[in-house]
């Protein structure tokens, strides 16, 4: 079982991101579960969502306590919330930012994870460019696919296309693919380094 | 010739069976083939205004709808005295749910009939003042706001009579009730409280709002007929004196209803979409005292000492109502 | 069709397939997605004829349902927590009048203090009102139980509450097979009321019943509800025949046959419990879990048959009776009378606190190790954080500002 935890703020599509991850896994005939940990609708408040992916039916209903991957949609949360709590030693960290991990004070954390497992992606900028809106969730899913190899970018695109329509769908898919390429590039650089 | 038992009801000076009138103009009650929606055998008090009102309202509605009617009744006197299990006085499809939900239940019946393609069957919801102006008020407003296709009828005897004469939002100022007792100089039910739901109904701008009393039963029937010609949310507020709660003579029930209108305390009118369209003018105005004196619930205004201060205030309310609705010579404020 | 969906959406789609004629609901977290889903379906016209009524309160919602059901329409509503309590009077009214209304309760805690997260206090608070109560373990069950519920309700003329853990299930995305319309039609015939408001054949519904007959009416209500204990298994089998998959029934045992210790629970925690059971079994502990799907009527016979002398039982409850003890435990204790099954009560997951595998493992291991029989009214609160108590007490004056 692969467990993911996504951190962000209300209005950034955190819950949708988890749902789309689960749909992408479903597209690949795997079992998946996604659910939020939240309360009343409140833009800007910290939001956490979870996803689980497995080849067997998933029966667990507890929150993800030991994620195999953490996605941080909003870096302003980094020093407010323990976004890294429980991250597994060989886990993945994906942060939405134009800065570097060192800039964000995550250099030490990254160093403890396997090489190439901690990655940043300017998802908001990519979303602005391809979608015209600063909603980074779809882009982050593309980045996630590249980072973990857990699902293909085509499955991510299919999940996005099933949820959104028209320009919104096209834009989100484009952002996801762009983020995918970006992370692939970053990882091959890292391996080469 | 077969002997047919026909029940006639004398109502004050207005005999019900006027054979010079076109049958269509006659009271429903003049028709031996009337439905008797609420039939004899119920347990109402002698002189009950509500029993009289309900009979006229429902038989008129059944005639207007060709018998296609479902009635929803709130908890209260009417429900209690008409359905002592295993007997029932109702000869119409009838549902009693709770005290505060008659408007909502009626809305549900209406929705179901519409879903089943039977909008030809009409719905009446009915309740006393308690079930309409107080505990049923939220549901009533919801029905009005949604414009559900229901005629809601309030039989207003100005208090919670079935439970022992307690004060409701429809109890008039100065009335003694079990929860607005008279001590020393207290007036009974305070002045400056209470609500007149017909005006609130009008504020919802529903298709039809009307008031009526059992003193003018033909007017009551006519208003029911008018209401049943329309669709959407309609409201009828009927003043029905209660001998027990008002402390009046059982034989005075209709007279008191007439005095309530002739004094100006209870305005009789019709309104559509929030605008008054017709009023019943006062034919022979009487001072409120003539109305108050016949009810023990107002006795403290006269004995042991005369409370001119309170009587004057009640008179002032009547004066204001007459002006507001233009009940005399059509002169509105 | 099997698709990755939100639990609420699956419930909405399934209810729609049951061909409701009147739907009415008032918004309350966490049921809102269900009624929003239904209102969208109704708006497309594909459910016609179906009336969707936006009501002014939960009390009005169930009241509209009562009127609609009495007029012969298949009727549905949904609520949670405060909303369920707000319609309490109407709940008793609906069951007393024998109206086969189906309602989803998205289980949520009851305030004060206000809390919008999952526990079972709401449905448990109304366990005596005469409604049949079914608790879904997962979202496939949540969806499928509604089909069963309509059929059950209309067969017995008893209203049915389908309890679905709020947020935990309602807002979870998972693969759910929403039943095909053709199959639903095969399982669920049109509603034929036992009695109905019909001007052509007028009846009086809701008469006043005095001391001379009230007891008999209540006796019959109990007798009728208990018939569900035989009807539900029969319908569950028929469900499997029609839909080709397992249906929830009265109880759902997991590895209980040779267990030394069995945890009894309701709702979504059973999924986590199953995982925990497997882990502990791998460590050599003979543990099992017993899910109660049908809570009202209480399936005494089925539970007695599923357990045997010598098994320790933990009742893991998401609600409790303040000042007394467990709620499910009370029924369980009565059901296990005469059997050698020491029973302890553990309250967990109140107000949405997650019930985690580590905590469950600890609880089960400790209980298995302990040789003492638990005191009958003893209440254990799982994961009670004693450090918070002083603040919760308000630093001296109680009650605090919570």
Protein model, in words:
The complex is a heterotrimer of chains A (193), B (333) and C (402). Chain A has 193 residues and is of the alpha/beta class. Chain A is built from 6 helices and 6 strands; from the N terminus they run βαββββαβαααα. A 6-stranded mixed beta sheet of chain A has the order 2-3-1-4-5-6. In chain A, a hairpin with an 8-residue loop joins strand 2 and strand 3 (46-54). Chain A is globular, with a radius of gyration of 15 Å. With 333 residues, chain B is of the alpha/beta class. Chain B has one domain: Rossmann fold (3-Layer(aba) Sandwich). Helices cover 33% and strands 13% of the residues of chain B. Chain B has helices at residues 49-64, 77-82, 102-115, 129-134, 137-146, 197-203, 217-229, 243-246, 253-262, 288-292, 308-325; strands at 69-73, 93-96, 122-128, 151-156, 208-213, 234-239, 269-272, 275-279. The relative contact order of chain B is 0.12. Chain C folds into 2 domains: 2-192 and 211-243, Rossmann fold; 251-387, 3-Layer(aba) Sandwich (Rossmann fold), CATH 3.40.50.920. Chain C contains 14 helices and 16 strands. Classes of the chains: A alpha/beta (193), B alpha/beta (333), C alpha/beta (402). Chains in contact: A-C, B-C. The interface between B and C is large, with 46 and 44 residues.
- CATH topology of chain A, which one? Pyruvate-ferredoxin Oxidoreductase, domain 3
Compute the number of strand runs of chain A.
6
The tally of helices of chain C reads 14
The first-level CATH class name of chain A: Alpha Beta
Q: Name the beta content range of chain A.
A: 15-25%
Number of domains of chain A: 1
Structural class of chain C: alpha/beta
Straight-line distance between termini of chain C: 46 Å
The Rg value of chain A, from CA coordinates, equals 15 Å
Counting copies of identical and different chains, the oligomeric state is: heterotrimer
- With strands numbered from the N-terminus, the spatial order across the biggest sheet of chain C is 3-2-4-5-7-6-13
Q: Uncertain segments of chain A of ≥5 residues (pLDDT<50)?
A: none
Question: Biggest sheet of chain A: strands side by side, in what order?
Answer: 2-3-1-4-5-6
Share in helix of chain A: 40-55%
Helices and strands of chain C, in order, run as EHEHEHEHHEHEHEEHEHEEHEEHEHEHEH
Overall, the morphology of chain A is globular
Characterize the largest beta sheet of chain C: strand count, sense, and whether it forms a barrel.
Answer: 7 strands, mixed
**Secondary structure tally, helices of chain A:** 6
Following the backbone from N to C, one meets helices and strands of chain A in this order, namely EHEEEEHEHHHH
Q: Please tell me the CATH architecture of the largest domain in chain C by its name.
A: 3-Layer(aba) Sandwich
């Amino acid at each position: 079982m692969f467990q993911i935890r996504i951190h962000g703020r209300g209005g950034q599509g955190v819950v949708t991101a988890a749902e789309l991850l689960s749909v992408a896994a479903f597209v690949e005939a795997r079992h998946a579960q996604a659910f939020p940990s939240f309360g009343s609708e409140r833009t800007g408040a910290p939001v956490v969502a979870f996803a689980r992916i497995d080849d067997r039916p998933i029966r667990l209903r507890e929150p993800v306590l030991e994620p195999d991957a953490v996605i941080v949609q909003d870096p302003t949360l980094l020093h407010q919330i323990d976004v890294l709590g429980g991250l597994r030693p060989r886990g993945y960290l994906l942060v939405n930012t134009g800065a570097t991990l060192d800039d964000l004070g995550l250099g030490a954390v990254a160093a403890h994870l396997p090489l190439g497992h901690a990655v940043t992606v300017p998802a908001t900028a990519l979303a602005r460019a391809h979608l015209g809106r600063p909603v980074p969730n779809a882009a982050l899913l593309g980045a996630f696919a590249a980072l973990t190899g857990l699902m293909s970018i085509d499955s991510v695109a299919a999940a996005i296309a099933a949820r959104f329509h028209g320009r919104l769908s096209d834009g989100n898919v484009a952002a996801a693919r762009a983020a995918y390429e970006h992370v692939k590039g970053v990882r091959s650089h890292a391996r080469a380094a | 010739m077969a002997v047919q038992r026909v029940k006639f009801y004398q109502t004050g000076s207005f005999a019900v069976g006027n054979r010079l009138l076109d049958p269509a103009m006659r009271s429903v009650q003049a028709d031996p083939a009337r439905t008797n929606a609420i039939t004899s055998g119920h347990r109402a008090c002698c002189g009950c205004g509500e029993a009289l009102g309900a009979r006229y309202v429902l038989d008129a509605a059944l005639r207007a709808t060709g018998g296609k009617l479902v009635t929803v009744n709130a908890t209260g006197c009417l429900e209690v005295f008409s359905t002592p299990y295993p007997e029932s006085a109702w000869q119409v499809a009838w549902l009693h749910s709770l005290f505060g939900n008659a408007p909502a239940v009626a809305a549900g019946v209406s929705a179901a009939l519409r879903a089943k393609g039977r909008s030809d069957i009409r719905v009446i919801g009915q309740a006393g003042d308690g079930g309409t102006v107080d505990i049923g008020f939220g549901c009533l407003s919801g029905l009005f706001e949604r414009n559900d296709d229901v005629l809601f009828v309030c039989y207003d005897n100005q208090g919670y009579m079935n439970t022992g004469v307690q004060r409701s939002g429809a109890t008039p100022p100065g009335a003694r009730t079990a929860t607005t007792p008279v001590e020393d100089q207290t007036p009974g039910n305070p002045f400056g409280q209470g609500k007149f739901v017909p005006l609130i109904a009008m504020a919802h701008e529903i298709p039809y709002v009307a008031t009526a009393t059992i003193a003018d039963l033909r007017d009551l029937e006519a208003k029911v007929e008018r209401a049943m010609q329309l669709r959407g949310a309609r409201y009828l507020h009927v003043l029905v004196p209660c001998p027990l709660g008002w402390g009046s003579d059982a034989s005075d029930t209709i007279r008191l209803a007439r005095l309530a209108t002739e004094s100006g305390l209870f305005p009789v009118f019709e309104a559509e979409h929030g605008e008054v369209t017709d009023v019943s003018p006062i034919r022979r105005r009487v001072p409120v005292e003539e109305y108050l004196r016949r009810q023990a619930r107002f006795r403290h205004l006269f004995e042991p000492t005369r409370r001119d201060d309170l009587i004057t205030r009640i008179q002032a309310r009547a004066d204001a109502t007459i002006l507001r609705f233009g009940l005399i010579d059509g002169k509105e404020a | 069709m099997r698709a990755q969906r939100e639990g609420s959406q699956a419930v909405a789609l399934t209810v729609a397939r049951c061909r409701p004629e009147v739907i009415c609901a008032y918004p309350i977290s966490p049921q809102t997605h269900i009624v929003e889903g239904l209102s969208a379906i109704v708006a497309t016209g594909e459910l016609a004829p179906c009336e969707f009524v936006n009501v002014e309160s939960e009390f009005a919602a169930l009241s509209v349902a009562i009127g609609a059901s009495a007029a012969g329409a298949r009727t549905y509503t949904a609520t949670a927590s405060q909303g369920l309590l707000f319609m309490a009077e109407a709940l008793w009214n609906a069951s007393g009048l024998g109206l086969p209304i189906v309602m989803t309760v998205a289980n949520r805690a009851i305030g004060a203090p206000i809390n919008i997260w999952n526990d079972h206090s709401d449905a448990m608070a109304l366990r005596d009102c005469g409604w049949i109560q079914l608790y879904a373990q997962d979202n496939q069950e949540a969806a499928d139980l509604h089909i069963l519920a309509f059929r059950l309700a209309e067969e017995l003329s008893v209203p049915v509450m389908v309890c679905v853990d709020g947020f935990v299930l309602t807002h979870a995305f998972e693969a759910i097979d929403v039943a095909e319309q053709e199959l639903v039609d095969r399982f669920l015939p049109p509603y034929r009321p036992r009695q109905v408001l019909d001007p052509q054949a007028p009846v009086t519904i809701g008469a006043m019943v005095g001391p001379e007959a009230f007891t008999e009416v209540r006796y019959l209500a109990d007798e009728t509800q208990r018939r569900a204990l035989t009807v539900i298994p029969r319908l569950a089998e028929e469900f499997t025949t029609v839909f080709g998959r397992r249906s929830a029934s009265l109880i759902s045992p997991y590895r209980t046959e040779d267990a030394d210790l069995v945890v009894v629970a309701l709702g979504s925690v059973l999924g986590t419990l199953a995982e925990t059971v497997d882990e502990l079994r791998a460590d050599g502990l003979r543990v099992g879990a017993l899910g109660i799907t049908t809570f009202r009527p209480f399936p005494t016979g089925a539970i007695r048959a599923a357990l045997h002398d010598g098994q320790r039982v933990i009742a893991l409850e998401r609600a409790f009776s303040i000042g007394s003890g467990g709620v499910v435990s009370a029924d369980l204790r009565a059901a296990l009378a005469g059997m050698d099954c020491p029973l302890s009560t553990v309250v967990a997951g109140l107000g949405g606190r997650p019930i985690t595998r580590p905590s469950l493992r600890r609880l089960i291991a400790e209980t298995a190790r302990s040789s003492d029989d638990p005191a009958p009214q003893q209440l254990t609160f799982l994961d009670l954080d004693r450090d918070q108590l002083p603040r919760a007490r308000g630093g001296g004056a109680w009650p605090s500002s919570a």
